[in-house]
Amino acid sequence: MGVYDFEVTTADGATRSLGDFSGKVLLVVNVASKCGLTPQYEGLQALYREFRERGLEVLGFPCNQFGGQEPGTDEEIQDFCATNFAVTFPVFGKIDVNGPNAHPLFVHLRAEAPGDFGPDHGFLYEHVKNTRPEAIGTDEVKWNFTKFLVGEDGEVRRRYEPTVTPEEIGKDLDALLPAA
Question: Which residues form the active site (predicted)?
Answer without folding.
Answer: 35
